[in-house]
Design a protein that fits this description.
- With 264 residues, the chain is of the alpha+beta class.
- Helices cover 17% and strands 42% of the residues.
- The protein contains two helices and 16 strands.
- The strands form four sheets. Strands 1-2-6-5 form a four-stranded antiparallel β-sheet, with no helix packed on it. Strands 4-3-7-8 form a four-stranded antiparallel β-sheet, with no helix packed on it.
- Strand 12 and strand 13 form a beta hairpin.
- The longest helix is centred in the first third of the chain and has 34 residues.
- It is rod-shaped.
Length: 264
């Protein structure tokens, strides 16, 4: 009696990558059958695509950060508000996280820059000129913008008219700069002795002064509201001297005439 033994031939195990693929296929929504080449390619693509996308995003962020760090700040919303006594230049700057400094110069002279809110600044100036504003980042990049200030009153008042009528002298002043005459600064003195001279009437509405014709030369000084000073001398001239007259001379006392001249 022959005893027969049954032997089962075990199936050879697949390659490691095929085993891994068979384990991943149910998770990827694919049937766990012996994969074909097309299914292998799809599985690899689904496995590698997230990693490739992650690398691309990181690379793009790195490039963006490099350009951001190397780019200078930009100015925008630059406005100039001018008056006869002062002007204000307001502006905004981007890349505030990288800003190291914001400085300004008026015709080469440093002026203060006032911080308003995040990214917003202003500069107050009291003279006309070219205002250069510079923004510097922590990476050393600089940018510059310019604003022209031209409306500030930088011209002193001047004598616009003078006349002598009935022994009374009237001198009119005009301020072409626009700030107006500051009559609180007005002074009148004897040009020879320096003693104070009392003017009979100051008409601030008409910007003129009236006083009896004096017997000596007078010096008048005043400034406009922007602080520009004027100093003039009313000289008394004898008849016969070849000098320009101050204006109409009617009933001038004795033989004196008047001439108003600005000091240089």
């Amino acid at each position: 009696m022959n005893n027969s033994e049954n032997y089962s031939n075990p199936k050879p195990s697949g390659a490691p990558d095929q085993e891994l693929l068979r384990e991943l296929m149910p998770q990827l929504g694919m049937e766990a059958t012996e994969p074909k080449k097309r299914y292998k390619a799809q599985a690899r693509l689904r496995y590698l695509l997230p990693k490739v996308l992650t690398v691309c995003v990181v690379a793009a962020l790195a490039v963006f950060a490099w350009f951001y760090l190397q780019s200078p700040s930009e100015f925008y919303n630059v406005t100039v508000t001018e008056g006869p006594e002062s002007a204000t230049v307001a502006f905004d700057v981007d890349r505030v996280l990288l800003l190291e400094s914001v400085t300004a110069q008026l015709d080469g002279r440093p002026v203060d820059v006032d911080y308003e809110t995040i990214g917003s600044y202003k500069v107050d100036v009291d003279k006309n000129g070219d205002l250069a504003i510079t923004a510097r980042t922590v990476t050393g990049r600089q940018s510059e913008t310019h604003a022209t200030v031209s409306a500030i009153d930088d011209k002193p008042p001047h004598i616009s008219d003078h006349e002598l009528t009935g022994g009374e002298m009237t001198i009119s002043f005009t301020d072409n700069g626009g700030s107006g005459i500051d009559w609180s600064s007005f002074q009148a003195v004897n040009a020879d002795t320096g003693e104070s001279f009392q003017v009979e009437d100051i008409d601030e509405q008409a910007d003129c002064i009236r006083f009896p014709f004096p017997d000596s030369s007078l010096r008048f000084s005043l400034s406009d509201k922007a602080g520009n000073p004027l100093s003039v001398v009313l000289e008394l001239l004898h008849k016969g001297e070849d000098e320009p007259n101050a204006g109409e001379k009617t009933d001038a006392p004795d033989d004196a005439e008047g001439k108003a001249a600005s000091d240089s």
